[in-house]
Amino acid sequence: MFRRFILTVFLLISCPFSSILLAQSEPIIEKTPLKVGVVGYPPFSDYNEETFRGISVELWQEIAADANLRYSLIAQPGIQVGIDGVVAGELDVLIGPISITTERFQKVAFTQPYFNAQIGLLVSAEKVSVWSRIRPIFRVAVISSVGGLFLILFVVGNLMWLAESRRNPEQFPRQYIRGVGSGMWFALVTLTTVGYGDKAPITKTGKIITSLWMLTTLVAASSLTAGIATVMTLLLSAEVIKDFTQVEDIRDKQIAVVSGTTGEKWAQIYQSRVLPSPNLEQAIERLKSGQAEGVMFDVPALRYYLYQNPTAPLKIADLAVSFEDYGFILPLDNKLIRELDIEIVKLKQSGRLEEIIEREIKGDFENQ
């Protein structure tokens, strides 16, 4: 009995220590490869069915090599989809040009920032032509309104001539063309409330027609004024639509954005009419087709697009919407984040991170 008691005590004491020793001797290597989602756009991430490349991808490869991490890269269709994958446990890490925001911090954890980017606006670089300024005048609605007004003046002019030509030939001559012309002139000055006083009805019929016409012009004049004001607004704003000098200029403008990005958030903050698109290419197509007046997105990606498409009649507006840091995403309370932070700081201090950024950007641009 005593011998059995001694053996039991020995086992109880030795087991914890043996577990600790085993744990200390075991290398810190992930048992299964990390599922690393890749999201974004060149020059930070670019991928096809076989290869991944870009600043974010190469940075991760350097970090993983130094930290002895095994992983597999998985392409993601969008930033929000990737974030949802991390929250759901489907991804262990999400890399790419991902802006660090307070809203995202509530759901996931971010590493140290590795890049500072600017949110900007891509707009048309085409100069405003004379035709584009006067084109609103020739729209169907404007032409039909002017035609309708002329028809009404012609009808009123005829009525006034029929009522006044016999008893008031001095002001409304009996000759048809001259008489109707005088009647239309009388109708026009009454409509515009100018009232020169050079013509006035003297017959009862003429006065009744004039009274009815004066009542009608109270409504017609306001409608005409509103129409003219609308056309003038379009003419005067033709140049403003092409040039954005401050972020307040996007208010009430049609701005294309990529769904789930911070560009969409800033467009909403500045009260533009947001046109969501699934990716940057479709957002830019909306700008080219005239559906949108600008594309709000990260400036590095917009510059990359312009380098790839040097003949595109587009430019980046001279305004800064916001400055944001990029970081990698991990689940909340993930123990790996400290190790990744250390590796990012090492790469910053050694200058290696700057080398990666310069090589990727210059390499992409020089190959265009």
Automatic annotation (TrEMBL):
SUPFAM superfamilies: Periplasmic binding protein-like II, Voltage-gated potassium channels. This is Extracellular solute-binding protein, family 3:Bacterial extracellular solute-binding protein, family 3. InterPro entries: Ionotropic_Glu_rcpt (IPR015683), Iontro_rcpt_C (IPR001320), K_chnl_dom (IPR013099), Solute-binding_3/MltF_N (IPR001638). It comes from Crocosphaera watsonii WH 8501. Residues 33-364 form the Solute-binding protein family 3/N-terminal domain. Residues 33-363 form the Ionotropic glutamate receptor C-terminal domain. It is found in: Membrane. Keywords: Glycoprotein, Ion channel, Ion transport, Membrane, Receptor, Signal, Transmembrane, Transmembrane helix, Transport. The lineage of its organism: Bacteria, Bacillati, Cyanobacteriota, Cyanophyceae, Oscillatoriophycideae. The chain crosses the membrane at residues 137-163, 175-196, 208-236. Residues 1-23 form the signal peptide. Pfam families: Ion_trans_2, SBP_bac_3. GO terms for cellular component: membrane. One of its GO terms (molecular function) is ligand-gated monoatomic ion channel activity. It is a multi-pass membrane protein. It comes from the Bacteria.
